[in-house]
Every structure is written in structure tokens, then in C-alpha cells.
Amino acid sequence: MANLTGLFPGAHPPPMRTKRGRVEYKWYIRWSPAWQEKRAACLAAAGARCACGREATHAHHLTYERLGNEWPEDLEALCKACHDDIHTCPVCEGRMRWAEIESGLLMCYPCAVETEG
After folding, report:
1. Which residues of the chain are modeled with pLDDT < 50?
2. Where are the domains of the chain?
3. Residues 13, 26: contact at Cβ < 8 Å?
4. What residues have CB less than 8 Å from 87, skipping those under 6 apart?
5. What 8-state DSSP symbol labels residue 41?
6. Are 85 and 54 in contact, with CB atoms under 8 Å apart?
7. CA distances from 84 to 9, 18, 36, 58, 97 (A)
8. What are the φ/ψ torsions at residue 9 (nearest 5 degrees)?
9. Where are the beta strands (DSSP E) in 2-88?
């Protein structure tokens, strides 16, 4: 996503929407105060600890079904290493990308490998 900060001095850019009218993921994660609150609540609920015992700094979406209206159980507190592991292709070790937000599948496009997110 392009850096739009200079176009909106003193504020964040307006919400961006997908063709289906949903909030665009990158905008939501970067600019939404609602996301920042949900992320903070997720980390606090986990005591700022990942399941591995390290400090949790990431709130991972277990589903994108309710993106923008997440329930607490839609999020998991993770450390950076565990979050990176979830998004790493088991075949080529490249970065997995969401094939479709609604599908709940991660896709490694070079390998055409699908896994559940």
C-alpha cells in the first residue's frame, strides 16, 4: 500500500474498500483505531505471551470472515517468530499470501500450495 500520510496531514487516509465493499485489509491493519484496540485487547488477554512463551507482539487472524468486526476468538496473540512460521510455505519457505480473504486459505503462489490460515 502506498504511503498516503502526506496527502492527509494530521489524520489517516479515508477507509479503502474492496470491490465487495469490505474494508481493505492493509488499510484496516495500518490505520484503523478499531483494529488497534482489538489488537491491544488480544495481546492483553494473552498476558502479552505467545503460546511458545515469548512476548506476543502480533494479533493473528484465525479467520477473516469478520474482518473489521472480529470477535475475540477470531484472534490469536503470537510472537513474531510464530507468526512468521504460520505464513511460511512448507515447500519453498516463501511467504504465504491469502488467496482470498473469504476462503480462509493461505496460498504460496510459486508452489501452488494451500494451507488453512
Report:
1. 1-9, 100-102
2. 17-82, 87-117
3. no
4. 95, 96, 106
5. H
6. no
7. 33, 26, 20, 10, 12
8. -60, 135
9. 58-61, 75-78
Q: Measured between alpha carbons, how far is 18 from 75 in angstroms, rounded to an integer?
A: 22
* Cell numbers that stand for 93 in this block: 519457505
Q: Cell numbers 470472515 correspond to what residue?
A: 65
Report residue 80 CA to chain centroid gap: 12
pLDDT tens for each residue of 74-87: 999 999 999 988 87
pLDDT digits (tens, 9 = 90+) for 49-58: 999 999 999 9
Q: What is the pTM of this model?
A: 0.69
Strands (E), the chain: 58-61, 75-78, 97-100, 105-108, 113-116
Residues 79 and 57: beta-carbon distance below 8 Å: yes
